[in-house]
Amino acid sequence: MSALGVAYIIIVFGLAGFFACRARARLLEQRGQKMHSLPLYYGWWAFFVTSAPALLFLLIWTISSDLYLERRAFSHLAAQNAAAQNAASAVAGVAASGAAPAQSAGFGLEKAVLSDLVKNLPALGGNIADYAQASYASVRKKLLTAKNIALVENGRNYMLPLAVEWLETRRILQKTGGAAAIILAAFAFVGSFYYVRPAFRARNKVERVIISTLFLASLLAIATTIGIVLSMLFQTVHFFESVSPRAFFFGTVWDPRFSTAAGEAGATGRFGLVPLLAGTLYIALVAMIVAVPVGLFAAIYMAEYASPGLRSVIKPLLEILAGIPTIVYGFFALMTIGPFLRDISAALAGGQSFIQAQSVLTAGLVMGIMLIPFVSSLSDDIITAVPRALRDGSYGLGATQSETVKKVVLPAALPGIVAALLLAASRAIGETMIVVLAAGVAANISFNPFAPMTTITVKIVNQLTGDLEFDSPQTLVAFALGMTLFVLTLLMNIFALYIVRKYREHYE
Amino acid sequence: MTAKYAAVKPKRVKMRGENVTVFYGNKQALHGVTLDIAANKVTALIGPSGCGKSTFLRCLNRMNDTIEGARVEGVITLDGEDIYAPDIDVVELRARVGMVFQRPNPFPKSIYDNVAYGPRIHGLTKNRAELDEIVEKSLKSAGLFDEVKDRLHDAGTGLSGGQQQRLCIARAIAVSPEVILMDEPCSALDPIATARIEELIDDLRKNYTIAIVTHSMQQAARVSQYTAMFHLGSLVEMGETKIIFTSPKERRTQDYITGRFG
Ligand SMILES: Nc1ncnc2c1ncn2[C@@H]1O[C@H](COP(=O)(O)OP(=O)(O)OP(=O)(O)O)[C@@H](O)[C@H]1O
Ligand SMILES: [Mg+2]
């Protein structure tokens, strides 16, 4: 039985515990006992006591037995692999002079082949032990013809006994673990009756369980974030082993391909961040120049002047704009805005267009359009949240509506608005699709907004697509770039939060 | 509905409401109220919750205009001039008829800027020195100057509730209004702060006409010269405070003042 099946059984035990203990609590109540909590809480506590430890045990058992099996099989595989190598070199007459070629270059691949075999072998059904003596080629053929599963060709025959042993042991371990978990649940089920007594504070216990569950959920979110950051960090450190941080952070040339061709690691300037950072910030700046005034004015109009009817139409419409996938904006830039700007500049200059179809301006403009609903929706919420009493105070002194907005409402809303703008800016910095399509992939340093430039995110995609080798600086640089971007947006978000916190007391 | 106020003829009438009727959407909040506000006197508006005191007060400087769906009928005059006439500038009117609200609502600005707000938007001063002078004078008349003179540029929101309310009064005085409307100005304050504001109101009476809504009978008796009693959106009776409090004509007034309903 699979671990999932065992989990179902445990939950059934838990439910049984729930109903049994609730019924018992009711019974005690009817007999005139003064129970501390409502019967329901005794039920929930029993459910928790019965199922949680058993499920936890099952989880840990499954994970650790898998890890154990994998390790064992791989160490056997290493031995087999080394023996085969030795034999091969002996045949070839090469002096195997004691130097153990412990793990050949292809060993990583062999591990993958074995894992794949283990994954697919059960599909053949029947008694798995029968395949221990079969040849890899025959098993592969059988899987291909019968199940349409293709394994790699160059597996070794000695993998089959390993795979069979792996699967057999796994079956035994699963059985033992499952049985143990079920027995645990059964004992806990019986034991949970112990808790159904008047003095037991089931209600408080259930509260604890709920708090722990909520806490675990938030812990999970944080742990994931930390995990992501750590994995990026390791690769980044790895990257800086072959390229000096100075060359990365201060290099002005982005040309990752040449350094392998020349074979010299850490050649200065080739992984230069500067052109990408410049492009990122430049395009984000143009986007903000477009989005901030338009978004803010739209927000002020919606919050202060629009009638409720109009507002109820405009706001959802703007939010639809926010829901359009960015690739569609990129498309719009590529097909409409880019050519339009090019043609108009050609018309203005009389023939020669000075705006290229892919340019900082095109990308910034379209990204700005993308950010308008973001800015206006957030700012609208913030402006509406300014207390009515402040507006009344201003009107009561004889201020007009626009004076009130300018001198009272906006200053009161300013910290929130600044925070919203910083969030918008960090979105602009992280945006990829629009830039790929609208500003191109050429890493230039230029102040000409009509020329193409590119951004950090685009280059990350660039470095991670195609044939990958995860230990070359060409690929690893993507992690360094990602880390840079992460730190950049993190700092902006922290700054935004700081501003909001600092000025919040103004609202009371 | 007419003759109830006629029992008193204040010497000089600053504002007069005639047959004032107010609707919020379909809901009628005031039913033809006719009421005089005497010049350089304090007029107290009393009555049980929801009877339309605030509504009437807000009509006097057209704050009801800012409420969606509010509609005012009848005639309200300031020095004999109809304030709902089409050629009246609301903004100017509100500079002449200032308002202090129930909860202190200082702007999130410095104490100085709070008081300077009105003079600035109305362009009352030509230079900084004049502005400084107005700010100081207003803070003094609000009895706040001595407490804040060393921190005029600190946030107004950092003051205590009572100080904030006096700041709001200073802010209203700074535009030199003729009338000051106060809607339960002490309801968020402790007895000591309340006593200070009451003193202040008594002082202000020399230069301003004041209308105040209050739920405290003692306060009405202490600070006002005239009292108007509202009930269910109508004026029950209006008269000199000492007469209203000692020998009201209406049973409902008697009951309300002695705490039998409301
Ligand atoms: N903005 C509004 N929209 C709809 N109805 C309102 C509004 N403001 C007041 N009303 C209604 O008008 C009536 C009078 O309200 P008003 O605020 O003038 O009473 P009040 O005498 O000031 O009461 P309180 O002493 O509780 O402040 C009440 O029934 C109230 O529900
Ligand atoms: Mg009121």
Fold and architecture overview:
With 508 residues, chain A is an all-alpha fold. Chain A is built from 17 helices and no strands. Chain A folds into three domains: 1-84 and 158-238, no CATH class; 85-156, no CATH class; 277-503, MetI-like fold (Orthogonal Bundle). Chain A has helices at residues 3-30, 39-91, 107-120, 136-147, 159-191, 202-242, 245-250, 258-262, 274-305, 308-323, 326-349, 360-384, 388-396, 401-430, 433-439, 456-464, 473-504. Chain B is an alpha/beta fold and 262 residues long. Chain B has a six-stranded mixed beta sheet with strand order 6-7-8-3-9-10, with helices on both faces. Chain B has a four-stranded antiparallel beta sheet with strand order 2-1-4-5, with helices on one face. In chain B, a hairpin with a 2-residue loop joins strand 1 (13-24) and strand 2. The longest helix of chain B has 14 residues, at 128-141. Classes of the chains: A mainly alpha (508), B alpha/beta (262). At the A-B interface, helix 13 and helix 14 of A face helix 2, strand 6, helix 3 and helix 6 of B. The structure holds adenosine-5'-triphosphate (ATP) and magnesium ion (MG). Adenosine-5'-triphosphate (ATP) binds at residues 24, 27, 29, 49-55, 67 of chain B.
